[in-house]
Amino acid sequence: MLRAVVLAASLASAAAFAPSSILPRSSSHAAKAVGPRMQASESVPFLSKPKRLDSSLPGYVGFDPLGLSDYVDVKWLQEGEIKNGRVAMLGVVGLIVPEVFTFPFFKKGVAVYDNFFQIPPESLGQIALAIGLIEVFSHKGKITPVDMFEDGRKPGEFGFDPLGFGKNPDAFKRYELAEIKNGRLAMIAIGGMTHHYFLTGKGPIEFLTQIPNFKSCTSAAIDTGLCV
């Protein structure tokens, strides 16, 4: 009789601490307790997806680790990205071409960075002022995130299409995406070229033509600290 009582008590204790008695029996109960699951960013999976980042914009990859789109109009941010990308693409060309061709009024054999410092400060100020005026007048004075796109204009569109690339809507979408991607690559490239020149004193073409192969470059870097 005592054995039967002990056995029954043991079974009751085991049943009380069984997982089914502690955990919710249905997934709906668990969903209510935990709440809605946070959607992850496509480009940075360990961060949450930006709430206001528009996936319909060209070049969208869900990348906004600083959360700028939560505070500033996304169109205004993309306008800045497109403009900086266009300037960077021109800048990359401007860094490479002078190593092959220079105008007569510039000294031959002088790197483009040194040519920049030959321009008087007053002239640089005039250039900056001219760029600012062009920016203001091209937007009719509306240059803030609040009013820049009141007229329904898309980011980066200024009606400039002399070759008629925008006539075909499907082709135009591909060109939009290509411009965004090439602009992003150019912004990274011009940063790398600029830092490389200040470290080695050589432009991209001059540096590459002096490297017979990667192995010799590695040896020189080990011996001298610089790959020359």
Automatic annotation (TrEMBL):
One Gene Ontology cellular component annotation held by this UniProt entry: membrane
Q: Which residues bind chlorophyll b?
A: 86
Source organism's superkingdom?
Eukaryota
Protein name, per record: Chlorophyll a-b binding protein, chloroplastic
Binding of chlorophyll a occurs at 69, 81, 179, 182, 184
Q: What biological processes does GO assign it? A: photosynthesis, light harvesting
The UniProt entry, under InterPro entries, shows:
Chloro_AB-bd_pln, Chloroa_b-bind
One annotated GO molecular function is:
chlorophyll binding
